[in-house]
Design brief:
Radius of gyration: 16 Å
Low-confidence stretches: none
Protein name: DinB superfamily protein
Number of strands: 0
Shape: globular
Oligomer: single chain
CATH superfamily: dinb family like domain
Strand content: under 5%
Organism: Asanoa hainanensis
Helix content: 40-55%
Distance between the termini: 13 Å
Pfam families: MST
Length: 170
């Protein structure tokens, strides 16, 4: 993980802001799960029952669903692979923090690749997540949605980490 800070305060380009904040929140999420003992990364401290590892996997799949499968209409073998048949987050025994952080980094690189060649007003392609043009949101909408998912779940991890070991902050 790199030492990424919030984007510079003088940035005004909306695409750069969105992509830089996405990079920032990926690092924040990574900081929240790195260093947790294996028994803590797989343990829930919340009534809803999710674990830090499940949330990390959800973020990896969420970004892939919206960017690769959604916006670019690329084939994705298991777009809902973070969920069981009931829609609950699940992690396979062989999935680790390191592997999921590497997958999150790859997803971030792919997001940048796709976004770099498109305008924020460009609409998602038909054929992946979206069956008709009427369903297709703009790249700007999708990036904003993905950013709010990361920010919201980073907050959830803040609470979980504080409950686990008292750590607070980014």
């Amino acid at each position: 993980m790199t030492d990424v800070r919030e984007p510079r305060h003088d940035l005004a380009d909306p695409k750069i802001l969105l992509l830089d904040f996405l990079d920032y929140y990926r690092v924040v999420v990574g900081r929240k799960v790195v260093g947790l003992a294996p028994e803590e990364v797989d343990r829930s401290r919340l009534p809803s029952g999710w674990t830090p590892l499940q949330l990390l996997k959800h973020l990896v799949y969420m970004e892939e669903r919206w960017i690769r499968w959604g916006f670019a209409a690329e084939p994705v073998p298991h777009p809902w692979g973070d969920q069981d048949d009931d829609g609950k987050w699940q992690v396979r025994p062989e999935e680790t923090v390191d592997a999921l952080l590497a997958a999150m980094d790859l997803a971030g690189a792919r997001t940048r690749e796709i976004a770099d060649r498109c305008g924020l007003d460009e609409r998602a392609a038909v054929g992946g997540r979206f069956a008709t043009e009427a369903e297709c949101p703009s790249l700007g909408w999708i990036l904003t949605h993905v950013l709010q998912e990361y920010a919201r779940h980073a907050g959830h991890l803040d609470v979980a980490r504080e409950l686990i070991d008292g750590s607070v902050g980014e």
